[in-house]
Amino acid sequence: MDTLNFPTKRNLLLARDRLALARKGYDLLDKKRQVLLMELGTARHQLKKAQLQLQAELGTAYNKLSIAQAEMGSWRMEKLSQHGNMNACTSILFRSVMGVELPHCCCEDTNASLYYKLHDTTASLDEAMLAWKSALKHIISWAGIENTIRQLNLHIKKTQKRANALDNITIPLYMARIKHIEEQLAERERDELARLKLVKGKGSTSP
Question: What average pLDDT does the chain have?
Answer without folding.
Answer: 84
